[in-house]
Design brief:
single chain; 211 residues; mainly alpha; minor pseudopilin epsh fold; 3-stranded antiparallel beta sheet; 8 helices; 3 strands
Amino acid sequence: MAFKLPPLPFATNALEPHISKRALEFHHGRHHDAYVKTLNLLVEGKPYEKMALEDIIRRSAGNPGERAVFNHAAQAWNHEFFWNGMQSHGGGEPRGAIGDRIAESFGSYAAFRAAFLEAATGHFGSGWVWLVMDVDDLAVYSLPDAGNPLSTDRVPLLACDVWEHAYYLDYQNRRRAFVESFLDHLVDWDFVAARLARARETRAPARAAAR
């Protein structure tokens, strides 16, 4: 089963002026596509070839001999997750269950925003910033390179790509400005809320069985 580049969930100009059509075409059509194509070459003829991306990530994580497989599988999954977490006219302070959970975990949306920005701007080199469900709390943390929470017990809810190829065409070296635009104008909070709801449903039976 060959992996394929998933289509974007929006038109290539839908996120302008915050992410330009040109930047999105390069990011999705070249960088994301390259990860998918290289992954297919790496897994050809191996058991990984018939696995879902999530299973490849979990199986190859922490295995030095499978580092290239992990990197490309994780980057393929991370990018698709990143696209799905954005929409035109999104961002800002969320309402409803996800807004309540953010306030419970961070104290306020402003505190969450500050923590996310600190994680993004303080991250040295390439990587990803994540909002995750960590046990029953929400948390923000960054991972280097292709790092992915699926290799831990944390549940990913939102991701922001802080590799230079994500923002350099539009923002040059102004990573903070890119992440501010992401938070203030692009985050699809309905997507995040749906991820949170599924995570809670999945974990409730597990907690009940452990009692």
